[in-house]
Amino acid sequence: MLKTTLERLERNLSWSVLKSVWSRNYCMSSGIPRERVECVVIGAGVVGLSVARELALRGRQVLVLDSAPTFGTATSSRNSEVIHAGIYYPPNSLKAIFCVRGRDLLYKYCSQRQIPHKQIGKLIVATGSSEIQKLHNLLDRGIKNGVDGLVMMEGSEAMRMEPELRCLKALLSPVSGIVDTHSLMLSLVGEAENCGTIFCYNTTVIGGHIEQNQLCLHISQTKHLEMCNGNSPLQPEIVLIPKFVVNSAGLSAPALAKRFDGLQSAVIPTAHYARGCYFTLSNTGICPFKHLIYPIPEDGGLGVHVTLDLNGQVKFGPNVDWIDGIDDISSFLNKFDYSVCTSHMKHFYPEIKKYYPNLKDESLEPGYAGIRPKLSGPRQSPVDFVIQGEDIHGITGLVNLFGIESPGLTSSMAIAEHIATKFFRC
């Protein structure tokens, strides 16, 4: 049934943009095809892929839609690739619960499927006396969150472990690690497809409307959306009527939810965007560190830290650069500014040298940038993940995922498990 739907969808989406005009209350012209499907996951990032796989494993017919040519082109491919332990987040928060559960699921999944990963451990360091109490607070929080193996160390002990490190005290998290996110996502796609999931790329969900308390999705080819001048209403080429919808659109999830006509705007949180740049260490034959090295967290992020990838490359970042949002269409098409501004480099050196004083000048080179889909802005307290079902917004079958920033990668399989268990019972 779903295969037939896809064949019709692909055929319909090959048409030129239909000229049927629909009014503000979405009285659709009969010229726009309508198709019923069981489950639609919007967004093929690591969370969307995990959700699609989990639903497919439970016997659901799943269709994944993404505006990009392939999976994982936004936040999922522009992060530190770190498997977090669960230290930073308020006890009993979704971030804490899903990070700890997701970490265990992720390690097990990667081990069983030979996905490249490594449990290398992390040192969170205090380089000034004023930071020592903050380090103890992190230890207490990590213990409350159920993180195993945490050890508070004197600086001398940590520096024996890492001779290039300088610190007064350090918190060792042995269960932290790194993962090859592309291999992970490729595995999730393959497993979902083996269970019948169908992926439709270059396909954008541009909005929706409510009929009989059920969300109908408006679909357009991405190439037609790219030609839109923004002055005329977006016109769907096909309307999908799913039984279940998971809005896992990441950076554009709030903007898309605002285009679901009939969804109360009061339940849609304000989106904030924090760009983070990474710089790589050049001209080094020997990696200076064996562990991940993190400073005390800062406003909006975890500080400029040392990340090692599975090829031994050393990365520093990300910083926190608050940026303004962009228009809806650009958001749907992921046209955020991912450029790495070299002027930021001068701010990296003093931050890194607090714990790595032997860093040589002119040894950093631009790497890449990512953008965090945050629900809190500058100087605001961090906000938890938001996972909305019918009990919040009143629309049958719709699950909105908002603010799935770090530790979203680590939490992805736990989020999928939660969604499948809580919202897909019938």
Automatic annotation (TrEMBL):
Transmembrane segments: none annotated. Its cofactor is FAD. Residues 39-420 form the FAD dependent oxidoreductase domain. Its EC number is 1.1.99.2. It is an enzyme of class 1 (oxidoreductase). PANTHER family: L-2-HYDROXYGLUTARATE DEHYDROGENASE, MITOCHONDRIAL (PTHR43104). This is L-2-hydroxyglutarate dehydrogenase, mitochondrial. It comes from Rosa chinensis (China rose). The lineage of its organism: Eukaryota, Viridiplantae, Streptophyta, Embryophyta, Tracheophyta.
